[in-house]
Amino acid sequence: MSKDLIILAVDDDIINLKLLKSMLMKNDNVIEVIEAKNGSDAIDFIKSRPDINLMLLDIIMPIMNGLEVLKVVRSDENIEQIPIIVLTTDETKRAKALDLGANGFLMKPIRKAALNNKINSLII
Length: 124
Fold this sequence. Notes:
- The chain has about 120 residues and is α/β, with parallel strands linked by helices.
- It has helices at about 15-25, 40-50, 65-75, 95-100, 110-124, and strands at about 5-10, 30-35, 55-60, 85-90, 105.
């Protein structure tokens, strides 16, 4: 079963964002990757684009970090259902992210196979 996925990738590091986009676009189910550089932009995208299927969310960011984004998304009934995979270099954030409603957790650096497996387990 295939699904046309629109994924919101959120990371303040431009290089990480480009790598993520490049990995995602190699997934046959992904038709669009929207890039956000901070949590505040991510919230704006998620509220204005109801067609987004999944969010990949970095935790450590300026302006609004990933844990704050999780709190906002999970407390808004219009967007609370969107699956969110948290990405971080900090293993200690895993429990907190999952407590706040993350659907999955990937350690950076992200590996393409692990990313695709996680997406497939949540979406397809």
